[in-house]
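Preliminary data (for renewal application), glutamic acid complex.
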Amino acid sequence: MPRPVLRFAPSPNGYLHMGHAYSALYTAQWAAAMHGRFLLRIEDTDPQRSKPEFTEAIFEDLRWLGLDWEEPVWRQSERFDIYAAHADRLKQRGLLYPCFCSRSEVAAAASGTDPDGAPLYAGTCRHLTPAQIEYRLAAGEEVQWRLRTEEALELTGLLTFSVAGPTPTDRSQIRYARPQIWGDVVIQRKGTPTSYHLSVVIDDDAQGVTHVTRGRDMEPSTDIHVLLQMLLGLGSPIYTFHKLILDGEGKKLSKSKGSPSLRSLRESGVTPEEVRQKLGF
Ligand code: GLU
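Predicted structure:
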């Protein structure tokens, strides 16, 4: 049996909060329990929101919590060429198309919402002619590339993935993926050659990740990941979705809502032992 490989993969677009601490401690705990490897990966693909000081803070906060991980730590911003090469393969197969829509145009044309509650893309740019595309590119319009999800599914047929729960050591069960509920997802965002979905499946495969452990809120995105894995010939790990840490109002913690950061807790005198104890580790 190869050694299990687990990873914690935060995005450095803010300071870590108790939800991240739970996910990191959970993943490290199960890596240790399974005599596996624990990796840390920095998912800094968003050029606007990722900041080096947040990456440094991730290292510092996780060390403060008492965690240890293998070096070198992969940073996704150093792997853009690899993501672009995979996206090119999809383009050559006619599975991606350029989309010039702004956020407000996507929202105005939306036919519903995706599992994240965001406007579902209505396919506005799906039928642009090569001449129209060339004209808009020449005019310097910013482009993002979307997946032709229905066509992709015709190629792959029925998709399944393995979910182990409540912990990664439990026997896994097979689930069907339904990527169509996401519509034509963005595979390469404006201003970067990748997206969260593309980078995460490429790197989990490249790092030999055997078990993905992430919050329940990310469960629906597995449908897209499984489709991309199949299209790109990548491995599919076993998934476990852990509980979320909620605030006093029962809402998920988030950087954008200003949930208290680990460093602000530390500055107010909270100890790592107290954090661990509060989270049940
Ligand atoms: N980078 C993602 C985030 O911080 C999580 C990645 C994952 O677990 O796949 O939300």
